[in-house]
Write a structure and sequence with these properties.
- By secondary structure, the chain is α/β, with parallel strands linked by helices.
- It is about 30% helix and about 20% strand.
- It has a four-stranded parallel β-sheet, covered by helices on one side.
- α5 packs across α6.
- The protein is globular.
Amino acid sequence: MVNLVIWNEFVHEQEDEHVKSIYPNGIHGCIKEFLSNDSNLNIKTATLEEKEHGLTKDLLENTDVLIWWGHKAHNLVEDKIVDRVQQRILEGMGLIVLHSGHHSKIFRRMMGTTANLRWAERGEKERVWVCNPGHPIA
């Protein structure tokens, strides 16, 4: 059994009616609903607005993998929570960062970079190789 936590800043769904209509239970709720089909996952969610952003010491100590979804509220995540998440990653907890989470405090800290990027929209295709198809996140 994998103990999975899905963290979402949960801002767009509350500010933008169009986004809310697509994700009435939040993006974290949508991801949880999809992943709930896997009986090997014990799934919990946490959001920015919760006390300690939902990432309590107890929750993180019992988390195998943390999925992080962020877009525009990265600066609102308290540094003490980032410290806590980083410590758990260094202890072996997995981290999967989605969407614009590359600008999250935790991603930038773990990667040791600003994580700034550029892109071009030219209608090109992206090719992705799965190097280990037997891995649980592949």
